[in-house]
From TrEMBL, chain B:
Subcellular location, record wording: Periplasm
Record keywords: Periplasm, Signal
Pfam families for this protein: SBP_bac_1 (PF01547)
Record-given protein name: Sugar ABC transporter substrate-binding protein
A cellular component term, taken from the record's GO annotations: periplasmic space
Organism: Microvirga brassicacearum
Family, per entry: Belongs to the bacterial solute-binding protein 1 family.
Taxonomy of the source species: Bacteria, Pseudomonadati, Pseudomonadota, Alphaproteobacteria, Hyphomicrobiales
Length: 285, 435
């Protein structure tokens, strides 16, 4: 075999596996979305009818807007907090740093449903710990889930709490990869700690930051468990975001046509977002 | 011939000879897959009962293995329908009432007459007759048998009633209901409500049919029009929605935070003594009693109005059927017949705490329902026979409870007008179902 084809030969098994487990459901979804669906089975060819129905849905712009607000806020807050935490942990001694890492990562390693339920029981439900503390302090009961704004704020808080551990670990690895010499040289030249962070540390964290931003965006944009368990999309539609809309269309009203169309639109949206991130960061390999 | 080659030949011949030995029991053992929401490894009364039924059946039928796969209850039937569309569904399915019409319409359920009902005597069929039987019978074909029959009305705490000097039997009208709820609402010295008279959850996640539905049905109005479009914003619907939201806003006998409570939240509040009455299901009573004690949970029918003694409660349940594409229909049918037959039905009642599916089971219970805490079985049976409503299956009703709950949330949280909110719910439901 010609040497230039040797590489292709090596990647064929992996590519075949990827095609099978990753791309085939997408192709099937595209095909499925082009048909009228009755009782879970594709019947007659519908062309782009499912997509047209989706675009004509008056609730979709609101859902999209809430998804952007939720994802944007959750990702921004997580990155800022995790960066601060990572820098702090990096400066701690090995043993204390390890202990803090363990505490921070716990929400990330437990299942999303369990983590969200814990949050709901402890902080939200008025028979939980937070409610008891508020009552002990002689304050009125608080019902954070009953206001559209505070319900969205809680949803963002849970998402940050759940995912911050992952971001901290990745950024910490990035920090550990920066040679100490750079910081030392800057300090000798008279740079302040803020200047060192802004001019040296932050630029060198570009790759882990990009990775964290991509993963957090995708995981927040596609999370269904958190809003489903925490708020059920309510009150009203205040916390209904796109993945929950897909879930409801598929499992509550059983409209698989529009559910598939929306899921595919989200998939291509995700792909575009990743491309945009990489391009914005001018990431060259 | 090399020794190793000889050894290979010998091993091959030995394998062939072993393979040819007849093992009828092993060769013919059929595996029957069943999808349900109950986990046989769980500890609730219904889960323990299912495990016992499976174990008893397998002991009596060593050639059949029942493999139970547990799914979230609100996703179970849609997943089954999708699996049917893909040609890979389980052999036995527990279908939710809301999606039963879809399941039958999709041709996903086998006719049980062909599997075992044709062998039944007229007495056996009469033993099972009733609204649940009729719901799963189309053009003479019986597509499923019901289990986990659910009667959704009022669960109450007898100890709190006693404490307030109230008798549940005196709640005959909706006015009586409000008066009782007020009497059962307890405030502490600082003015905070520590126990509410009545609670029901408005979350769209795990939505139970709210109090307004029995009120509407009692007025003679329907929740749906004949063509399947929603009929939420009728004058009766508006009055009923106003009544139930006024329990929070006007009468202060129901918690405002219930605007986002799920069904499970409501049961937790009830179990923790934060609510004296809740909208609750008969199938949950045994679990609550196992936590609180048999004498701490009672069940009553909805109040009535005018000539209607009791408003019709929403009935639900799980229609157990055999997948039409199953390769082991006979074995699957055999298990369904056993699980919901006289032996299984008795276990579901005495161990699982469910309402009986057979009249003979009810008759044979004797003093069982007179035992402490078992009176709810009579209430549920009486209600199912005389004051019940099953969602129609001629069209998909999926999402109607969620739509009404969301309308309630908008009224309670956003202060939306009752009629406007119900009209929005109607429009959303009709649009979602393309009606």
């Amino acid at each position: 075999m010609h040497p230039k084809y040797t590489g292709i030969q090596y990647i064929i098994p992996a590519f075949a596996l990827l095609t099978l487990v990753l791309f085939s459901p997408v192709f099937y979804g595209v095909w499925f979305s082009l048909f009228h669906i009755q009782y879970g089975a594709a019947t007659t060819f519908a062309g782009v009818q499912n997509y047209q129905d989706l675009l004509a849905d008056p609730t979709l712009p609101g859902t999209l807007q809430r998804s952007i607000i939720f994802t944007g806020a959750a990702v921004s807050i997580t990155i800022v907090l995790s960066l601060a935490l990572a820098v702090w942990i990096h400066k701690l001694g090995e043993r204390r740093g390890f202990l803090v890492q363990m505490v921070v990562i716990v929400p990330w390693i437990i299942s999303t449903v369990v983590a969200t339920l814990l949050f709901r029981w402890v902080f939200v439900n008025d028979i939980g710990l937070a409610g008891s503390i508020v009552k002990m302090m002689g304050l009125d009961e608080i019902h954070l889930l009953n206001s559209p704004h505070s319900a969205m704020a809680l949803l963002i808080a849970v998402s940050v709490w759940k995912r911050i551990g992952y971001a901290v670990i990745i950024l910490l690895a990035g920090l550990k990869g920066i040679p100490d010499d750079y910081e030392e040289a800057a300090r000798i030249d008279g740079a302040t700690p803020w200047q060192i962070f802004r001019r040296i540390t932050f630029p060198l964290l570009k790759t882990p930051l990009l990775l964290v931003a991509i993963v957090l965006t995708l995981s927040n944009l596609n999370t269904v468990e958190t809003p489903l368990v925490l708020t059920g999309g309510g009150p009203g539609d205040a916390t209904r975001i796109l993945p929950m809309d897909v879930f409801d269309r598929a499992f509550i009203t059983y409209d698989l046509g529009s559910a598939t169309a929306l899921a595919l639109a989200m998939f291509f949206g995700n792909v575009l977002l990743v491309l945009a991130y990489v391009r914005l960061a001018k990431w060259k390999t | 011939m090399k020794p190793s080659f000889k050894a290979s030949i010998a091993a091959g011949l030995l394998s062939l000879s072993v393979a040819s030995i007849p093992f009828p029991a092993l060769a013919q053992k059929a595996t029957v897959r069943m999808w349900t929401f109950l986990n046989p490894a769980g500890t609730t009364p219904r889960e323990v009962t299912l495990a016992k039924i499976v174990s008893d059946f397998q002991a009596a039928n060593p050639d059949i293995e029942i493999v139970t796969e547990t799914h979230a209850f609100d996703q179970l039937t849609p997943k089954f329908l999708a699996a049917h569309g893909a040609g890979k569904a389980p052999d036995i399915i527990w279908a939710a009432t809301d999606f039963l019409g879809d399941a039958i319409g999709a041709g996903s359920l086998a006719d049980l007459n062909d599997l075992f009902i044709k062998k039944w005597t007229p007495e056996q069929i009469a033993d099972r007759k009733g609204p649940y039987w009729d719901l799963t019978n189309r053009n003479g074909k019986q597509y499923a048998l019901f289990t986990s029959r659910n009667y959704i009305s009022i669960l109450y705490r007898p100890d709190f009633f006693k404490e307030a000097g109230l008798d549940p039997a005196t709640i005959k009208t909706w006015d009586d209901f409000v008066k009782a709820a007020k009497a059962l609402t307890v405030t502490d010295t600082s003015g905070q409500i520590v126990r509410y008279g009545f609670a029901q959850g408005y979350s769209e996640h795990q939505a139970d049919p709210l109090l307004m539905i029995p009120m509407v049905l009692a007025s003679g109005e329907g929740i749906f029009k004949k063509d399947g479009r929603a009929n939420f914003a009728s004058p009766a619907g508006v009055a009923a929605m106003k009544f139930q939201t006024d329990l929070i806003k006007e009468h202060k006998v129901s918690p405002p935070q219930a605007a986002t409570w799920t069904v499970d939240d409501v049961y937790e509040q009830f179990a923790s003594g934060r609510a004296a009455m809740i909208l609750g299901a008969s199938v949950r009573v045994s679990t609550l009693q196992s936590k609180l004690g048999d004498d701490k949970v009672g069940m009553m029918l909805w109040p009535g109005s005018g000539d209607v003694k009791h408003a019709p409660a929403v009935m639900a349940g799980w229609a157990v059927g055999v997948w039409s594409g199953s390769k082991v229909k006979a074995q699957a049918g055999k298990f369904v017949e056993y699980m919901l037959g006289p032996d299984g039905d008795k276990l579901w009642v005495t161990s699982g705490g469910q309402s009986p599916g057979l009249q003979s089971t009810l008759n044979g219970l004797g003093d069982f329902t007179k035992q402490p805490g078992k009176a709810y079985l009579n209430v549920a049976s009486e209600g199912s026979a005389n004051y019940g409503w099953l969602a129609p299956i001629d069209f998909s009703a999926g999402g109607y409870r969620q739509a009404l709950n969301k309308a309630g949330q908008r009224i309670l949280v956003n202060g939306e007008d009752v009629k406007t909110s119900l009209e929005r719910a109607e429009a959303e439901f009709n649009r979602q179902h393309k009606r």
